[in-house]
C-alpha cells in the first residue's frame, strides 16, 4: 500500500492535463505504483495524510509527498517520525523547488529520498522509489518505550528550546547535599529577568503577604527554598519559548490556561480534603499545572500548520485537542511534553504528570490526578486553550485518588472560584508584565 500526498485529480482530469508537467509527474508515480500492484491512498491535505498514516501504518510500504503542500512535507515527515507506530515507513518527498537548504532540512526531518521535479527520466524515478520501498523490508517493530523514541526524534530539531543557565545551576545545586540557601540566592540573582519575575510573582495576590518582598533572600525566607526553586524552574520553562514569539501561535491564550491550571492545582492542594491524599515529597502543584501542556508548545511552534489543522478539526467537531491528536496524529502533546521534560532533566515525577494528565493511568500519582482535575476545572471556568468544556466532568477513579467524589469537587470549586480568578489574573500580569 502506498500513501500519495499531493493535489488530487480524477482520471479524466489527468487526461486533460497530461501535457502539464505536474500532471505528467503524477501519472509517472501512478504508473509505477500500478506496476508494483500496490493499492493507493491519495489525499491532498495534511490532516487526512496523518489520519491515513495512523490508520494504515502497518500496511504502508511507502509515503510519497509533495514537499510544497500547504502543510510542508518536511513538517509532515517530522511528525510521522515522531509517531513510534510509523517510525519505519519509508518517506520520499518531491518538489520543483528543492534548494540545498531544503534538502538538508528534509534529511534531518527523516526523509529517505528527495525527487526533483519535473521528472525528466521516469525510469530513474522508479529506480529511486524502488530503493526507498526496499527499506520497508528493514522496518523494525515499533519501540516499546514511546517517550524515549519521541525524545530521540525531537533531538532532530536543531532549534528545540533550551533552558537558561540558571536552570542548569539550580539543578546542579539540588543534587549537592552541601548546597546552602546562599548558594541558591547567588545563582538566581545572576539572571536578572527571572529575579524580576520571581519578585513580582511573590508579591502577587497568590500569596498576599502583609509586607513587600524585595529580594530573593526575602522570597526564600517567606516562601521557602523549595517554592522559590520551583518558581525558577517554572519561569525557566516559560523563558525557553520566548524567542519563538515570531511564530503565529496563541501564546497568551496558552499561558493563561497554564497559569489557570497551576493556580487551581495549588489552591486545591491546600485544601485539607486533598492535602491528605498528596504525598509530602510530591511535586509542586503550581509548577505541575504550569508546565502540563508544554507539548502543545512544541506542536504549535515546530508543527504550526499541522497543529492548526488539529485545532480546526477539534473545534469543528466539538472535541478535545487530545482526542484529535490521538485519532489523527497517533501521538499526543502529553507524550511530546513528557519527552521534552526528559530532555530538560525535569524530575521524573513531573514528567509522569505531564505525560499522564489527560488520561491518568490506574497507578497514577495523586499529583497526576490533581493536575487532571485542575485542568478540567479551569476549562469549566473558561480558561481553556482552543477548546471549551463548560461542563465539569472527572471520573470517579481519578477523584478517588484524591479522596473525593464529584459533588465534593463541585462544592470545593464553588468556594474558591472567585479567589482563583483573581490569582490567575494577577499571576499572569506578574509573569508577563
UniProtKB/TrEMBL annotation:
PANTHER family: PTHR33525, RIBONUCLEASE Y (PTHR33525:SF3). Residues 160-360 form the HDOD domain. SUPFAM superfamilies: CheY-like, HD-domain/PDEase-like. One of its GO terms (biological process) is phosphorelay signal transduction system. This is HDOD domain-containing protein. It comes from the Bacteria. It holds the Pfam family HDOD. Residues 15-132 form the Response regulatory domain.
Amino acid at each position: 500500500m502506498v500513501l500519495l500526498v499531493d493535489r488530487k485529480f480524477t482520471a479524466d482530469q489527468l487526461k486533460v492535463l497530461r501535457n502539464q508537467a505536474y500532471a505528467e509527474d503524477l501519472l509517472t508515480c501512478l504508473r509505477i505504483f500500478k506496476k508494483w500492484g500496490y493499492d493507493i491512498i491519495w489525499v491532498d491535505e495534511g490532516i487526512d495524510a496523518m489520519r491515513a498514516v495512523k490508520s494504515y501504518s502497518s500496511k504502508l510500504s511507502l509515503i510519497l509527498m509533495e514537499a510544497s503542500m500547504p502543510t510542508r512535507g518536511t513538517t509532515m515527515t517530522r511528525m510521522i517520525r515522531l509517531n513510534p507506530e510509523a517510525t519505519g515507513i519509508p518517506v520520499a518527498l518531491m518538489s520543483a523547488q528543492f534548494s540545498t537548504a531544503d534538502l538538508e532540512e528534509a534529511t534531518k526531518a527523516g526523509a529517505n529520498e528527495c525527487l526533483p521535479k519535473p521528472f525528466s527520466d521516469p525510469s530513474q524515478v522508479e529506480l529511486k522509489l524502488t530503493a526507498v520501498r526496499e527499506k520497508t523490508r528493514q522496518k523494525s517493530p515499533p519501540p516499546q518505550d514511546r517517550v524515549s523514541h519521541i525524545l530521540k526524534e525531537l533531538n532532530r530539531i536543531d532549534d528545540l528550546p533550551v533552558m537558561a543557565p540558571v536552570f542548569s545551576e539550580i539543578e546542579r545545586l539540588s543534587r549537592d547535599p552541601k548546597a546552602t540557601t546562599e548558594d541558591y540566592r547567588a545563582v538566581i540573582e545572576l539572571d536578572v529577568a527571572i529575579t524580576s519575575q520571581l519578585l513580582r510573582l511573590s508579591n502577587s495576590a497568590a500569596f498576599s503577604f502583609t509586607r513587600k518582598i524585595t529580594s530573593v533572600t526575602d522570597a526564600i525566607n517567606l516562601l521557602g527554598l523549595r517554592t522559590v526553586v520551583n518558581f525558577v524552574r517554572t519561569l525557566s520553562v516559560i523563558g525557553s519559548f520566548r524567542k519563538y514569539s515570531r511564530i503565529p501561535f496563541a501564546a497568551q491564550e496558552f499561558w493563561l490556561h497554564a497559569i489557570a491550571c497551576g493556580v487551581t492545582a495549588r489552591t486545591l492542594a491546600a485544601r485539607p480534603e486533598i492535602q491528605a491524599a498528596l504525598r509530602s515529597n510530591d511535586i509542586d502543584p503550581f509548577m505541575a499545572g504550569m508546565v502540563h501542556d508544554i507539548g502543545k508548545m512544541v506542536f504549535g511552534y515546530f508543527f504550526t500548520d499541522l497543529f492548526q489543522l488539529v485545532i480546526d478539526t477539534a473545534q469543528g467537531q466539538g472535541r478535545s485537542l487530545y482526542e484529535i491528536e490521538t485519532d489523527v496524529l497517533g501521538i499526543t502533546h502529553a507524550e511530546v511534553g513528557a519527552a521534552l521534560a526528559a530532555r530538560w532533566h525535569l524530575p521524573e515525577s513531573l514528567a509522569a504528570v505531564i505525560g499522564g494528565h489527560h488520561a491518568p493511568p490506574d497507578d497514577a500519582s495523586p499529583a497526576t490526578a490533581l493536575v487532571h482535575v485542575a485542568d478540567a476545572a479551569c476549562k469549566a471556568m473558561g480558561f481553556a486553550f482552543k477548546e471549551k468544556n463548560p461542563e465539569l466532568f472527572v471520573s470517579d477513579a481519578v477523584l478517588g485518588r484524591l479522596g473525593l467524589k464529584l459533588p465534593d469537587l463541585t462544592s470545593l470549586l464553588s468556594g474558591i472560584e472567585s479567589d482563583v480568578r483573581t490569582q490567575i489574573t494577577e499571576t499572569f500580569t506578574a509573569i508577563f508584565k
